[in-house]
Write a structure and sequence with these properties.
4-stranded antiparallel sheet; binds ligand MV4; 395 residues
Length: 395
Amino acid sequence: VCIGPPTSKDSYLSMPKIIAAAEITNADAIHPGYGFLSENAEFSEICRDYGIKFIGASPEMIRSMGDKATAKKTMKKAGVPTIPGSEGLLKSVSEANKLAKKVKYPVILKATAGGGGKGMRLVTEESEMQGAWDACRAEADACFGNPELYLEKYIEEPRHVEIQLIGDKFGNVSHYSERDCSIQRRHQKLIEETPSPIVSSKLRKKMGEAAKKGAKAIKYEGAGTVEFLVDKYGEFYFMEMNTRIQVEHPITEEVTDADLIKAQIATAAGQEIDGKDFFPLRHSIECRINAEDPSKDFRPSPGKITNLHIPGGMGIRVDSHVYSGYVIPPNYDSMIAKLIVRAPNREECIIRTKRALQEFNIEGIKTTIPFHLKLLDDPEFNSGKFTTAFMETFD
Ligand code: MV4
């Protein structure tokens, strides 16, 4: 169904166009994927009004988790560990100064409407607070139309570890263990793995139970992910909750043998789940193959794929829509494929991922494949002892 011109604003982000496509095909439900309208409360609400099942969170859930200060308050009340800081929104810069003194510098100012890295300012001492406050509020207002901020103690060199969940309408919630997404560049994930090299089976159980407790408190339905920061002492703290399926969900499927999209559709259709949890049976790594030039600051590299060879064999999964002759338009996200590899353990998984990346051949455009090959040879990556700061020193 043609939903409009290439510009996303007039097609994939146009609610009337998507609803019209659903109407003319007599669709019972819409699976929103990730990005676009997948976490849009208004769209979730419109689907409900039109009697089309939105395979995603309710508008109320999207709104409550989309406001980060409210989400944090809700999780704290449910007994999920949170980072010390303000109880909700900051009223003034003097309140920010008072709280920063109490939790001790460094602290971080965060936009309540933010998330994913936009609208944040690190503050290392009181003399920086006023400037950071003004800049952060202005950025938050410009980006999200909401200048409200909250404050947290800054966790230095943390790991990003997230827990996958599925909930049903009967209040049952299962967790599917964690994914480690610590390797990011400008808040864009490049590679994800599970299990996390820093998560013991004891910590996995604790984080899984905490995420489930939070999800049950809000009667969460469908697929969701609770993001945690893990500090160098192995303490974990709630950061955000994503009310959608995520790009990196296949690695969870590869290690748990679960089908997360099937579980999403089943729970959206009102089926009951047993609430049992899923634990990793092996290791999995995902490399995001983007049409970008890593030697030119990862700048987008759209255009025609003139020749393509996709790797295969044992433990290799490639999720992609591209083929030889395909033209990557400049209008959308640059991710063109996901290479998802599974193996009995991390060491073998890294070796197998390197083999698959060497076999991958994409001609006509630049991709992140050379970057991944270099990363997988890095001693720090191989040791498993890296943090979210890793990319700042990797070149
Ligand atoms: C933090 C933090 C340290 N301390 N909060 C970045 C994205 C947004 N979701 C929250 N982020 C962070 N919040 C406190 N209190 C460090 C980050 C952060 C980060 C987190 C996960 C993965 C990569 C990151 C890169 C830079 C900063």
